[in-house]
Amino acid sequence: MKMKFKFAALFAGLLLIESPAMAEESLVEAMFTPLRQKEINPVNNKQYKDECGSCHFAYQPGLLPSKSWEKLLNEKALADHFGENAELDREVLAPIYDFVMANAADKSYYKRARKITNSTEGLEAPLRITEVRYIKRKHHEIPERMIKGNKDVKSLSYCDACHTQADKGIFDEDTVRIPNFPDWED
Ligand code: HEC
Ligand code: HEC
Known about the structure:
Low-confidence stretches: 13-20
Mean pLDDT: 87
Order of helices and strands: HHHHHHHHHH
Bound molecules: heme C
Structural class: mainly alpha
Shape: globular
Number of strands: 0
Number of domains: 1
């Protein structure tokens, strides 16, 4: 008993000392939060949130495989980012790129990230989350009038218009609400 306790304390101590705060947070989350683990690794990087969360919510890196992020996150691509200029200074882009690559779908153990990895494997890297087969399949029954024709949604890209906990990385169907269509399920 005493041995066990000592070992646990030592292990906890090692975690605190040896791992950077972020890795520790996601490890603890992975061990103790089954719902989150089922979902997508949440964003815990302020710089990413600030720079990539101004025009749309800050998409979790786990929503696309690294081969997609590679295509999106370089100077040339960001200068023409879906018709917008989203350029970043090199010193700002470098840490954001590293954060995204370390947390991309294919580096994540979260269930939905695994599904996204599987459904993009062996295919050309999609530039959009909304082009991932798994994501398309989950939404193909929603009529266009609830998306494009809905002034409070505009496009499927605005995940947080309908997924009320998208910023926490939770996309479970129980947390969905389509603006202006309270009875969409009927
Ligand atoms: C100046 C505004 C702006 C900034 C800043 C910006 N984006 Fe975007 N982003 C857009 C627009 C506009 C779209 C396309 C939305 C649409 O089609 O309705 C988009 C789409 C995307 C998509 C595809 C979403 C889909 O349809 O599946 C990803 C991924 C993305 N952005 C990531 C990023 C990342 C990462 C950053 C930070 C480096 C970033 N964006 C910064 C404007 C921006
Ligand atoms: C127009 C509203 C709307 C938008 C915008 C939207 N979704 Fe959804 N999403 C839904 C609905 C409704 C469902 C549930 C479908 C069902 O009942 O199976 C769903 C289901 C999902 C699921 C599966 C949930 C489950 O429990 O199986 C995922 C994952 C998901 N969406 C991710 C996204 C992502 C990522 C985006 C943005 C790129 C997005 N959604 C944008 C409405 C939306």
